[in-house]
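This protein record is not my work; I was only asked to verify it. Where you disagree with what is written, explain briefly why. This is what I was given:
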Amino acid sequence: MKKFVVRLLIVLLVLILLAVLGVHFFLDGAIKKGFNTVGPKITKVDTRIDAVSLSIMSGSGKMKGLFIGNPEGYKSPSAMQVGSSSFAVQPGSLLSDKVVVKSVRIEGPELNLETDLKSINLKKLLSNIEETTGSSTTEPSKEPKEPAAKAGKKLQVDEFVITGTKLHVTIDAPVVGQRSATVPVPDINLPPMGKGDEGVTVAEVSSVALKALLKASIEAGEKAVADLMKGGQILGKDLGTNTSGTIQKATKGLGDLLQKKK
C-alpha cells in the first residue's frame, strides 16, 4: 500500500509539473504570437519580438529582440530596436478574464530619425499608428479603426516606464548635405491603463506606448536637427552667406513639419 501511495504521489507531482510547464510554454507562445500578429497591423511595418519568457510562479517575465521596421523609402533597417524588456504580472490573474500587469519596463530603446527636410520616418510611423488606432497619446482609443485593436485578452497595466532611450538623428538633404548625431530622449512614465471592468488589449497598450515614445523622440529630434544646422555648420564646413538663407528656410520648414499634427 505504501509503495502504491508513493507511486501515486510521484505520478501526481509529474502531472502537476507537466501542467505547469504546459501553461508556461502556452503563455510564452501566446504573448509572442499576439504581439507579432497585432504589431504589424498597428504600425504598417515589420514589427516583432523574438522571444518571451514568463514565470507563472513569480509573475516576472522578459521580452527579447523587439524590432520595428522603417516605413518604405527610408534607409535605416529599423525605426526602433530594444534588446530586452521586463514585465511583472499578478500570477493569480493569469487565467482570469483580465490579466493584471503590475509593471512594464522598457530600457535602452534605440530609435533612428531620418529626414531630408521634407519628410521624417518617425512622423510617418506615428501617422500609421494614429490611422490604425486613433490619435490619443495617453489613453487607448474608444473606437479603434482596425479589428486588431479590439482582439486579445484584456489587461490592466499599473505601470509602464520607458527609460534610457537613444535617438540617432540623420540629415541627408541638398545644400545642407549629411550630418548625424545621437541624443537622449526624456524618460516616459505612462498613467495606469485598464483599471475599469473592460480593461485594455495588448494592441491598445502597445499603441499608447509607441505614440508617446515617438512624439518624445520627434521633439528631441527637432532640437537635434536645429543644433546640427545652426550657423550653417554642416559636416564641419561653413556653407557661406550665399546659402544661409536657404538653410534658415530649410530649418523653418523642418520645424513646421515636426509641429504638424502635434
Summary: Residues 2-259 form one domain. Residues 11-26, 143-151, 231-253 have pLDDT under 50 and may be disordered. The two ends are 75 Å apart (CA to CA). The longest strand covers residues 78-89.
